[in-house]
Amino acid sequence: MADTEAPGQALSEDWKEQKAPSWALLTPPLSPSYRNLLDKDMFSKSDPLCVMYTQGMENKQWREFGRTEVIDNTLNPDFVRKFIVDYFFEEKQNLRFDLYDVDSKSPDLSKHDFLGQAFCTLGEIVGSPGSRLEKPLTIGAFSLNSRTGKPMPAVSSGSGLWMDRTTGLEASGGVPGKKCGTIILSAEELSNCRDVATMQFCANKLDKKDFFGKSDPFLVFYRSNEDGTFTICHKTEVMKNTLNPVWQTFSIPVRALCNGDYDRTIKVEVYDWDRDGSHDFIGEFTTSYRELARGQSQFNIYEVVNPKKKMKKKKYVNSGTVTLLSFAVESECTFLDYIKGGTQINFTVAIDFTAGNPSQSTSLHYMSPYQLNAYALALTAVGEIIQHYDSDKMFPALGFGAKLPPDGRVSHEFPLNGNQDNPSCCGIDGILEAYHQSLRTVQLYGPTNFAPVVTHVARNAAEVQDGSQYSVLLIITDGVISDMAQTKEAIVNAAKLPMSIIIIGVGQAEFDAMVELDGDEVRISSRGKLAERDIVQFVPFRDYVDRTGNHVLSMARLTRIHSSWRKRQACKQLREHDKVTALPGEERAGFNEQRALSFTGHAG
């Protein structure tokens, strides 16, 4: 099979499913597209990334909600990744979209070039004609980041003034907004369908587009909208140097593909990938969910047609064919379904004891009589979310990287409460008490080894794999890791077990190793073995503390647990059962009257 390459990099989590009250409207995919962006790269085009923020009702603080994927070498990106937000008719919900040219793999936005931003409200989008809103991107007031020297956007504080992101100070005036592209956001009511379609395509005799080779084809899928426009919903990987590609199997929510309308037009475009982003159009075809659900048959062999060629050449037939090789659909159970069904969450905490002096105010472990230190803050923020899913509220709490009394031996897996037989603490308060007691009795040392605590939790998770229990390991660290190879191996082995790992990074470290373990961009591997699924979610805690010191971390940032659990169940089902292909009969539609808003964007 030919080599593959993804047409875009993914830096953030996949689709998120969030529950809203019955009087709210769920709002899935808000997917912006842009045109005529600023070009920040000298020898190529920009590599854009869009970041969406929501604004708090009380303190007016902007909170990052999500990020799109990165698309290489283009000033006209059409992002596939979509956001899900809740729509409340009676509230003014402010949204902000910041655009960056990505220069490295770092998740730190200050290391990338700022391209512009746009502000709007959710109500503006919904209330616009055809639920379609056009906004210019502008570069308003900005400041230089003290660490990187790159310009960072100023944001509206809600008072008519601009707020400096780094100082938190308001300032009037600022440079006049510079136009740097347009974003068009559209909304559509979306059915609450849980079905997920899994399919695979191949092509035959596609047009040759490369002078010194064949073609590097990939497919782009679009859902048709009620106003006749199309919204991008999926891109396949790129197959290198072939006119007869066989793409990998992929899965997509049915609501993303056709919004629950089985007869709605689905357009598929075929492109030849070019490194500079100017992909060559090969041709297109249309189909529908109802047609695809017939599976592999003569009805699902499509002629790829280039309309311009067809108009110019009388003898033109097609630019190749695309064939559906397989199609299956199954209903996806949510994380909440498993919780309601009795699945027990086992929450374990592991704290890094490898650096600093708790008696010094410069230490991240500093024991202040007036406020919690960085580790305690992070533990409280995540623990308050996770603990409600654990019925007995008894949490094993471990430390690693410290010298233990009385002999001063270094341990990478010691109980914070000092009880080797039962390291569990009662509630988050119990963990905090044991943590503070450990700071008084152990010596912070090193090195920073993650593998022992990962293996510890994996060992417990392996004991019960019938779906009744799911383990979550929270690691709080300053970002330095000494046993990267061993940790990767432990994570790869744990990926087939019912467990997830949340890594909270405290302090101002670069956290590059943590980003690698997160596996958003490249799934981690060890000894040539790829992790079965992505079970690690990394969160730099500094990004979720506002300027008053309050943490604003929410379950929205921890949804990887939901996604990871569902993928684990899917992998388990694949090993145990063959998938059942199902026709899209109305009797199994599974839709209800709860509806959602789908947002997409274009720019010009």
Topology:
Elements: E1 4-5, E2 8-9, E3 25-31, E4 34-35, E5 48-55, E6 62-67, E7 70-71, E8 83-87, E9 94-101, E10 113-121, H1 122-127, E11 132-139, E12 142-144, E13 151-153, E14 155-156, E15 162-163, E16 170-171, E17 178-191, E18 195-204, E19 217-224, E20 230-235, E21 238-239, E22 250-253, H2 254-258, E23 265-272, E24 280-288, H3 289-292, E25 301-303, H4 307-312, E26 321-331, H5 335-340, E27 344-352, H6 374-386, E28 394-400, E29 402-404, E30 409-411, E31 414-415, E32 424-426, H7 427-441, E33 443-444, H8 451-461, E34 469-477, H9 484-494, E35 499-505, H10 512-518, E36 525-526, E37 529-530, E38 536-540, H11 560-576, E39 595-602
Parallel strand pairs: 3-39, 27-28, 27-34, 34-35, 35-38
Antiparallel strand pairs: 1-21, 2-7, 3-8, 4-17, 5-6, 5-9, 9-10, 11-17, 12-13, 14-15, 15-16, 17-39, 18-22, 18-26, 19-20, 19-23, 23-24, 25-26, 28-31, 28-32, 29-30, 29-33, 36-37
Helix pairs in contact: 8-9
Entry keywords:
single chain, 604 residues, alpha+beta, six-stranded mixed sheet, 39 strands, 17% helix, globular, disordered C terminus
